[in-house]
Amino acid sequence: MHIPDSFMPLSQALIYWAIAIPFIIMSLRWARKEMDDMKNPILAALAAGIFAIQALNIPIGMGTSGHMVGATLVAIVLGSPWAGLLVLTLVLIVQGFVFGDGGVTVMGANIINMGLISGFVGYYTFVGLKKRVSMSIAAFVGAWLGLFVSSLATAVELWLAGTFPLVPGLMAMGTFHFIIGIVGEGLITTIALSAIARSRPDLLSDIVKDIHGGAEA
Amino acid sequence: MNPNMKFLLVGLAIAIVISVAAPFLASPDPDGLESAAGNIIEESEFAELEESEPAVQSPMPDYSIEGMGKSGEILAITIGSIAMLLIAYGIGKAAKI
What we know:
Largest interface: A-B, 71 and 62 residues
Radius of gyration of chain B: 18 Å
Structural class of chain B: mainly alpha
Shape of chain B: elongated
Oligomer: heterodimer
Mean pLDDT of chain B: 95
Strand order of the largest sheet of chain A: 1-2
Low-confidence stretches of chain B: none
Radius of gyration of chain A: 17 Å
Helix content of chain A: over 70%
Number of domains of chain A: 1
Structural class of chain A: mainly alpha
Number of domains of chain B: 1
Largest sheet of chain A: 2 strands, antiparallel
Distance between the termini of chain A: 41 Å
Low-confidence stretches of chain A: 212-217
């Protein structure tokens, strides 16, 4: 879902940068407040893993492929959507400047779509659902919805940019990312979270505690 | 030792395994955005968008190193994964200063 430079006029691309920067600053404030020597290795490992998994495009049929974004997973593991935004911002900076994946001028839009929208929608969907359903289902639905909504936001931005027609853009982006969200985002998020829950349940203790607290209340 | 350093090392190992496998396993099909663009934008206009140069030239475009084929792709993605680990660790540290 990385928008290339040519898909958006510079004047609009800069507006998304202007919107993205305050959010990036808030994610750094989160890091300043919350990061410590215990959380730092987790953040670093997730950043490396998400960069790598984003290079692994999964075929979804219709001559199309897609990959995980990962903001929801980071947000759940570190307990804040700001963590997802921070990691995706760093990943998108490296992808854009070093690997030509996603334009540099449109990076603000890519940060808003993949870091902000997918992570916040995914994380708060997860938080809302986890009291009612299992952690795995809540994570799956959250990750899926986060990716799906961010793809629709991308379609609207590209319509405003004059690149996509509105309805066909929403239909095409929605259709492809409905499927990418299931296989690329929901499934991998759930598998990774389950693996962490099994090997390091203490890392997710806040989530588990909340589930128990929710059941009693 | 910080017990979470094991998490970092396991995470790095997984990232490197994916980095080495990705050039062989990744689908060459266009991603959701490119595919959508190809379907709904008029052909000549789409070709123009695809051919236009990015604003900034990157040293390893498309996760590859010129003239190195698959081994270059493995190297590029592995370098990226390790760089991400170091950058994120550094930002986490620097945020506290």
